[in-house]
Amino acid sequence: MNNSIVEVKDVTKRFGKFKALDGINMTLEQGEICGFIGPNGAGKTTTIRILMGMINASEGRAEIFGKDAWKDAVELHKRIAFVPGDVNLWPNLTGGEVIDLFLRLRKGKNKKYQEELIDRFDFNPRKKCRTYSKGNRQKVALVAALSAEADLYILDEPTSGLDPLMESVFQETMREVKKAGKTVLLSSHILSEVEELCDKVTIIKQGKIIESGSLEELRHLTRTSIVVKTKEDLTEMKGIQGIYELQEDEKGSLHFSVESEMLGEVIQYLGSRQITDLKCMPPTLEELFMSHYKEV
Amino acid sequence: MYKDLFAGGSILTKLIMRRDRIRLVIWIFGIAGFVAALVPVIKEFFAEGDEVRVMLEMMQNPAMIAIIGPVYGAEHYTTGAAHANMMLLFSVIIGAIMNIFLIARHTRQDEELGRLEIIRALPVGRLCNLASCLWTALCINGILGVTTGYALNCFREAGMDLGGCMLFGAGIGSVGMFFGALTAVFAQISSNNRKVMGFSFLSLFLFYILRAIGDVKIEELSLISPLGLVLRTKTFVENNWWPIVIILGMSIILSLVALLLAMRRDLGSGLIAEKEGKSHGGGLLSSPMGLSLKLMSTAIIIWMLVVFIFAAMYGSIFGDLDEFLANNALLMGIFAGTDFSLIDQFITLLVAVMSMIAAIPVISFMNRISSEERHGYAEQILTKSVSRGAQFFAYLIPTLAVSVVFQLLTALGFYVAGSAVSDEIPSLKQFVQASLAYLPAFFVIIGVAGMLIAFLPGKTSLSYLYLGYSFFAVYFGELIKLPEWMKKLTPFGHVSRYPVEEIKVLPLVIMTLLGVGLLAISSIGYRKRDMEFS
């Protein structure tokens, strides 16, 4: 047995003829915060539902703390805090009632921290759930999940309805979780959030994991964009391999992107052309994401 | 300005019809087909001489009048008169239910789901949706009425001329419109869809009770209720159109009230404001069963009242039944030779009817397992430290307990109201035995609901269809001489007719075992399957 917190091995999930997940693999180690990104319908929520034991994998196995996610669900849930993608709440209960219910169903809770979180998220727990907006329903799930004493946090787009202020409160709480050495799986469309919080990113597309690793590793696989101005003519650059989207702007600066492994060579070439101005930007997660999704 | 309020109406009307086209076609042909299909059956049944007299006397007793309404045209009891007598009230109620569903779905439910907000953001008028709903209801009720009328007219039986047939259809259509408009009013007042449905069905129930009391004792009460009014058309006997005019007039007034209320409120709110609640959960909210009890408590209490009032209403006519019997030489003769009175005979029928009425909420409580899942609520619970089994039993156990309570309330209702008006009725113990004898049948039907939840979670409403069949087989089974095996397809057909018959223990034991077996299999099935997400 290894010590991975989450271990997904060759998991396939079929719904009738449709293959929602196609042999995915994923691991999370103790203390890691893993961003889980991919377009709508790629299989993020299906993966998370398998991890939470809501649905069973057609093939392969999903383990958390070395136990089976489907068979040992009840036992595992004592140590997992979860925020679902769609937070559906009973319309005639209040937010406060639901938070208490959730915490009692997990046993073990932190009353003082719960009140503090309600305060920090600026949440009114006395209103009936049917009157809450999406963001407020997410706050219910977040407060319940964060004030639970858990070792693993599985969060499915937890901030998609939050305003920027609340988003930063969320990031703050995540940093506290990280400090405490907890493990987090964070599915999100807000790439700046993933970039800010996560040590590791896993990208899923059409039911397959297409990329997984630390942000640095992933950046290595893509292009760096460069803006450069030189005294000498650069037109012959077009011929160099690994250079893309080359264009000149009205001020005479040259814009292009370059594959990371070609970077050294290109800089060397530019150096011999009397550089007057040079800007070199590593790819943002956004560019990374786009580059993976545009090309089929 | 006024034109603006209704802008976009014709497109929305088409949208409503488009969304409901299959559902509405099934409702319309279902109702018209059912009403027409019973014409030859009733004709045959009332064909033979002496039996008709007995049957007619039975129909005129207060218990039957309370259930299906008064007998008209007894002197010359044609097939038409018999058909209207047996069928009009039931078909009108089914039409009313169709309308309640139609209006609630397209007003408050759409509003709750946020669909109306998207529509209202387009250049359409503020009253447009409600007006389109009412307009659709009017068209649908018109089509339903005419279809039913023509279907009936195909038979050309005695007393069933075209005018009468159309009047029958108009009765269904107008009462349907009344309840549609009433639902539209509730949709403005209440703050959510659940309450709209609750208020609408409650008023259907109260109008039924009002009519029952009115028909047996105080005629005026029947005239307040559209269900009573529609019977005053004396369809196929006198063919009065004035009650239809009154019902339509009331529907128009209710529609206008709904539109006026809609002008005065904001989208998403009700005229009755939502109160702030507690900031912390009470002790009940600490287990899945505590949650299920809290969620179902209002419905349980309301249904307990409904069951008790229903039973008490039937019980209150036992006195009139005595009197009726004393004055009826023919029926006295028939029952003189047996040990059982007419009251006993009717108790068996009434207990069966009451049990099947109580089975409606029982199924709905059980089906909550599945509706919690569809709404995404179950996911919230099951991702905490709660097993599938615990979730299943959290709804199963209250359902079983409530079945027992309903049956006891039925017995109590009969006894309390009955003993106040008659000395001839059985003891409370006998009532309790008669109603508890139906519990094994409840176990089977809960078991069937459980199997659907476990293995066909998208089709849980089939349990209601099975109950509908049970009602048909038990209630009309004798009348249309249904083959014995078809009567035995329903658990309610296997219960002894106590106090007329001895209670046979064996079928009850078998049904109990069957019910337990079905529930055991379904709880395992629920544990092993994927959760459903909408």
From TrEMBL, chain A:
InterPro entries: AAA+_ATPase, ABC_transporter-like_ATP-bd, ABC_transporter-like_CS, ABC_transporter_ATP-binding, DrrA1/2-like_C, P-loop_NTPase. SUPFAM superfamilies: P-loop containing nucleoside triphosphate hydrolases (SSF52540). SMART domains: AAA (SM00382). GO terms for molecular function: ATP binding. Keywords: ATP-binding, Nucleotide-binding, Transport. The keyword ATP-binding applies. The keyword Transmembrane helix does not apply. Residues 6-231 form the ABC transporter domain. It comes from the Bacteria. Pfam families: ABC_tran (PF00005), DrrA1-3_C (PF13732). CDD domains: ABC_DR_subfamily_A. Belongs to the ABC transporter superfamily. This is ABC transporter ATP-binding protein. It comes from Aequitasia blattaphilus.
From TrEMBL, chain B:
It comes from the Bacteria. Keywords: Membrane, Transmembrane, Transmembrane helix. The chain crosses the membrane at residues 24-42, 86-104, 124-146, 166-189, 196-214, 241-262, 295-317, 346-366, 392-417, 437-457, 464-483, 503-526. This is ABC transporter permease. It comes from Aequitasia blattaphilus. The lineage of its organism: Bacteria, Bacillati, Bacillota, Clostridia, Lachnospirales.
